[in-house]
Amino acid sequence: MHRLRTCAARLRPLTACQMAQSPSQPRPAQAPLRTFPQPTRHYTAPVAAEPFLNGTSSNYVEEMYYSWLENPKSVHKSWDIFFRNANAGAPPGAAYQSPLPLGGDLRGPGLGQAVVGSQPSVEKLVEDHLAVQTLIRAYQIRGHHVAQLDPLGIMDADLDSCVPTDIITSSDKLGFYGLDEADLDKVFRLPTTTFIGGNESALPLREIIRRLEMAYCQHIGVEFMFINDIDQCQWIRQKFEKPGVMQFTLEEKRTLLARMVRSTRFEEFLQRKWSSEKRFGLEGCESLIPALKTIIDKSSENGVENVIMGMPHRGRLNVLANVIRKELEQIFCQFDSKLEAADEGSGDVKYHLGMYHRRINRVTDRNITLSLVANPSHLEAVDPVVQGKTKAEQFYCGDADGKRVMSILLHGDAAFAGQGIVYETFHLSDLPSYTTHGTVHVVVNNQIGFTTDPRMARSSPYPTDVARVVNAPIFHVNADDPEAVVYVCNVAAEWRATFHKDVVVDLVCYRRNGHNEMDEPMFTQPLMYKQIRKQKGVLQKYAEKLIAEGVVTRQEYEEEISKYDKICEEAYARSKDEKILHIKHWLDSPWPGFFTLDGQPKSMSCPSTGLNEEELENIGRVASSVPEEDFTIHGGLSRILKGRAAMIQSRMVDWALGEYMAFGSLLKEGIHVRLSGQDVERGTFSHRHHVLHDQNVDKRTCIPMNHLSSNQAPYTVCNSSLSEYGVLGFELGFAMASPNALVLWEAQFGDFHNMAQCIIDQFICPGQAKWVRQNGIVLLLPHGMEGMNETSNMKSTIIHQCDLPVRQLYDCNWIVVNCSTPANYFHVLRRQILLPFRKPLIIFTPKSLLRHPEAKSSFDEMLPGTHFQRMIPDDGSTCKNPGAVKRLIFCTGKVYYELVKERRSRGMEDTVAISRIEQLSPFPFDLVKAETDKFPQAEIAWCQEEHKNQGYYDYVKPRLRTTTDQARPIWYVGRDPAAAPATGNKKAHLVELQRLLDTAFKLDAFKALENFC
């Protein structure tokens, strides 16, 4: 049990265990008073001694104990005395008391009277069997705390040097259980909650302790006793407690050695060829490669056909080469600084890029598809993206139980403990619309984060403790023991296949170099790196072990090394011929056949997005009805459905119906629609109601949109957890899997997208330029200046991330719209699918316009031949005499209706034109120019409801100037600059609004202003 400790004392608060053992508070020599555990039914209950007295079974004793706790009179008086004495603190061997004659005093020793009785041997037998059961349970719960996990022998994986009091590390600890050395050779019956006996039902105490140490205190530490399912606990116990479970055949050992050779020699080859290049190598955790291959092999054996992986940069090139089996020359040529890009996009550094490969698994002789999702330097940002992509692949292949498609996520220890996205992703793991039916998490535990000591980087004992929130078992393993690593990974893959739940493998290792190959780690971790410099490599240690066992000869080992070195050298020679980088080799989500039609590139035109009237009426009838019989809906919802029916009758749609028409039509065309986010089923503003709830039957729901036609695509609408970062990443991954689906994420309020800014900045905004990957995800961001909780800051954030391409729509990084009519919202959603390519679509959706009496559209605006209008020109009386128009106001969104109302009240319909820019990016230069040319005498103004330093002003200003005669000024109409978007006071808000409207319609107002752009 002895473990080396670092010379430097660890400065941290004393744990309860340390305080108990500290010199200032020495542990009492006598055993502490023992009490029976309180009944916690959902945990594995302690089992009492095996048959004693009259053959009473341990299960019977346990039932007696629980019965006694509930009602002391429900058990025999002798048991009542025994349990009361034990709970009152009777010393070991003194709790049992013979039944007294009728009328005798039944009080126990802890209740004021000495124990009477004449059977100390029977008492001791009962106590000792209970003690042995408690001892076994202690190892199952806390054995991992003393497991030999650190390959360096200087650190504690749990950041605690304390040995739990109830773990037997020396004979003097036997007293804790009321046992002594004389009991070591006594034979004890084993309870049903352990498998250490194998085929034996009883063992000497000495052998019990030895086997517990072998199971829980060697190179594997198992955390599982917090799981509240007895069958799952028993399954894990069986995997680790049975004697001889970790046995490998000669062939398995030789295969493991070959994989270790590939993992190690790959890094050494890169170091020899490019010693000054950053590559974030795997040195110190070379066993990761056989670990991943073992998980994939076992999963393939269990029927998995598709594995989707996400990981940070450490070891990424090695995983690409030796797990996914990317061509080595494609990796090596990335180190050539003269390499030119043949494809569009800037790409990213080689240790961020992804990969997709379908190949034969040589162990199982089955086809398997492997993909590694591209990931930026935000280490854990890829986690929900992988989960979303996995969910999509399961959905499209009908894998309802996750038996054919699975995910593997790799993590660093510091990021796993420190980044909240890990917690968000775990909490998606068992939600019906987000579960991937189990993920294998592999933590590369360097025991350091960049330069930060783990004692300063986390408050939890292990970096993996976040996984306990979903009852995921955690298998800690010393990464310098390859056989232990492989065994644990086999168990992890079997767990996932058996229970379809998450599992964590914690590879406790070290980082031989610094944060990267150019970093000097001795600056901050001198003691650790002194030990690392002396540390023998894991390949060398394992090879020596196998040679000593006679599994391989030294010649065979050296031949295996030479064989792989030759493969690397030949690939290196071929890489010299690669003068051009073809980014197609690095795609993680190819869409075969999407960009071509009959072998030819698709036309770049977009057909009409309108529908015939019969189709609109059909969808409208479903939207205003309850398709299921005997279904009781809320009275208020009945009024809403009647209102929808009335609108359909009058050939009109509001915002909710326009969305319904778009979704329903795409579903009938075979396009899967998935809408996700907080409260999207009803809609944050109670306007959508896509899921109806029976008012009398719990959990009975109806989704009318799934009743459109018999051969429609399924509609998925799902309320998410209260997460933006994780859920948006999930939906991005879902949209990544297929271009033939409309995937939407709606923020509860628009500015909530701030919490998901990493996904937007790293994946959505630069998706095509950085990763050469198109994506059609739609972001619905509710907004509006209402004077209270405003969300306008998001507009300037998003709009200034738009690029300015030559081929605007095809080359833009995303499309940003602010629709002012339900018809235009309907068209832009349908256009998203009918376009021959995919771009992220950002829609600033309204709040007050959801029920605005003028924000309605006629069927005529949605019929065949109609399209999305990038700009809606003024089509009122100003068109009759354009030369008389004094002012042309450009605006977008809700403020249009306030401007129109004010213009009407002032009687200025003939002199002021108001035009709406509906698509802000790509900017409609052509339509704006045509509009300004139509009103040659008019002053041009940009009006926005947001403050000047927010909203779209800084984005629109140079684009308006580009489209107009430079002699014509562009005026700003809106609120003054401000730090906060809202006044928080309704009266102040209305004063600001009136000032805005006054400026917009006082034709001489600009002469006194200095707002000239």
Automatic annotation (TrEMBL):
<keyword id="KW-0786">Thiamine pyrophosphate</keyword>
<keyword id="KW-0460">Magnesium</keyword>
<dbReference type="GO" id="GO:0006096">
    <property type="term" value="P:glycolytic process"/>
</dbReference>
<dbReference type="InterPro" id="IPR005475">
    <property type="entry name" value="Transketolase-like_Pyr-bd"/>
</dbReference>
<dbReference type="GO" id="GO:0030976">
    <property type="term" value="F:thiamine pyrophosphate binding"/>
</dbReference>
<dbReference type="InterPro" id="IPR031717">
    <property type="entry name" value="ODO-1/KGD_C"/>
</dbReference>
<keyword id="KW-0106">Calcium</keyword>
<dbReference type="GO" id="GO:0045252">
    <property type="term" value="C:oxoglutarate dehydrogenase complex"/>
</dbReference>
<keyword id="KW-0324">Glycolysis</keyword>
<dbReference type="GO" id="GO:0004591">
    <property type="term" value="F:oxoglutarate dehydrogenase (succinyl-transferring) activity"/>
</dbReference>
<dbReference type="InterPro" id="IPR032106">
    <property type="entry name" value="2-oxogl_dehyd_N"/>
</dbReference>
<dbReference type="InterPro" id="IPR042179">
    <property type="entry name" value="KGD_C_sf"/>
</dbReference>
<protein>
    <recommendedName>
        <fullName>2-oxoglutarate dehydrogenase complex component E1</fullName>
        <ecNumber>1.2.4.2</ecNumber>
    </recommendedName>
</protein>
<dbReference type="GO" id="GO:0046872">
    <property type="term" value="F:metal ion binding"/>
</dbReference>
<keyword id="KW-0560">Oxidoreductase</keyword>
<dbReference type="InterPro" id="IPR001017">
    <property type="entry name" value="DH_E1"/>
</dbReference>
<dbReference type="GO" id="GO:0006099">
    <property type="term" value="P:tricarboxylic acid cycle"/>
</dbReference>
<dbReference type="Pfam" id="PF00676">
    <property type="entry name" value="E1_dh"/>
</dbReference>
<dbReference type="InterPro" id="IPR029061">
    <property type="entry name" value="THDP-binding"/>
</dbReference>
<keyword id="KW-0479">Metal-binding</keyword>
<keyword id="KW-0539">Nucleus</keyword>
<keyword id="KW-0832">Ubl conjugation</keyword>
<comment type="similarity">
    <text>Belongs to the alpha-ketoglutarate dehydrogenase family.</text>
</comment>
<dbReference type="GO" id="GO:0005739">
    <property type="term" value="C:mitochondrion"/>
</dbReference>
<dbReference type="InterPro" id="IPR011603">
    <property type="entry name" value="2oxoglutarate_DH_E1"/>
</dbReference>
<dbReference type="GO" id="GO:0005634">
    <property type="term" value="C:nucleus"/>
</dbReference>
<dbReference type="Pfam" id="PF16078">
    <property type="entry name" value="2-oxogl_dehyd_N"/>
</dbReference>
<feature type="domain" description="Transketolase-like pyrimidine-binding">
    <location>
        <begin position="653"/>
        <end position="852"/>
    </location>
</feature>
<dbReference type="Pfam" id="PF16870">
    <property type="entry name" value="OxoGdeHyase_C"/>
</dbReference>
<keyword id="KW-0809">Transit peptide</keyword>
<dbReference type="Pfam" id="PF02779">
    <property type="entry name" value="Transket_pyr"/>
</dbReference>
<keyword id="KW-0496">Mitochondrion</keyword>
<keyword id="KW-1017">Isopeptide bond</keyword>
